[in-house]
Amino acid sequence: MPGVLLGEFLIEKGFITKQHLEEALQTQRVFAGKKLGELLVDGGYLTREVLEQALAMQQTLRGQVREAAPQEKAGFLGKVPLLKELSAEELDELTALTRVETFPRGHLIFVETEDGEAAYFLISGSVRLVKSSPTGGEEELGTAGDGDVFGEAEMLYTGQRALTAYVQMDSTAVVLGKKEFDGLLERNPALGIKLMRLFGQSVALRLRDALTKHVEDAVHVRSAKGFI
Fold first, then answer.
1. Taking Cα atoms as reference points, which of 71, 68, 73, 13 lies closest to residue 46?
2. pTM for the whole thing?
3. Which residues, other chains included, contact 137 with Cβ-Cβ below 8 Å and sequence gap of 6+?
4. Which of 36, 148, 162, 210 is the most buried (most CB within 10 A)?
5. Is pLDDT above 60 for 70?
6. Beta partners for 157?
7. pLDDT tens for residues 6-60?
8. CA 208 remoteness from chain centre
9. Angle 18-30/3-12 helices, nearest 10 degrees?
């Protein structure tokens, strides 16, 4: 589990305090690259056994498949801005390939470097998208809310996740599996290619926003240093 997200989970479950996390993060800035869990153990904030217990607890928080009628799923997908170009027939074909899942707060929907197996159209809730930084912390890539899509990059290729998706609030999503999407590409190339184009646009916009934020943060830091 990524560092800061692990710390938040440990606080939520009562294993450590917010002050413990802040102190460990300060230490991590000095010892760049060392994992937060190890620093918490080394600092005496919790034992290795408790850390392993917390990691095991987090892994048990799985998404639950919820029964949903095709009309209900189509209604959800019809409200997703990314899919507004789809015709009613195309939306119905896409809907038939999906399932609805619910995720509890604190759940990791997927983790950076694991195989990408699905894209998620968020119906309700809030999901943080983060990526590991070279210093051992996390870089915020944004927060997905109602109607947003995430995990779509891996629909474009077969590979590992480039980021982690962490549930901030109980969430519900329509899920499109990679296998189902690949099957759609074979059966209906026109629709599959249209979805690939839309997914590509979505990924490009997220990268643009992340780059803009990175540049703005860098300018802010330089400006602040100029006043010291």
1. 13
2. 0.73
3. 3, 4, 25, 28, 29
4. 36
5. yes
6. none
7. 777 788 778 888 898 888 878 877 776 677 788 888 889 988 888 888 777 766 5
8. 17
9. 160
Token pair belonging to 203: 């990924």
Q: 64-220 falls under which CATH superfamily?
A: Jelly Rolls (2.60.120.10)
Tokens of 200: 């590509």
| Spatial contact of 155 and 176, defined as CB atoms under 8 Å apart | yes
- Given a contact cutoff of 8 angstroms between Cβ atoms, the answer to whether 4 and 166 are in contact is no
Give Cα separations from 196 to 67, 184, 200 (angstroms): 27, 11, 6
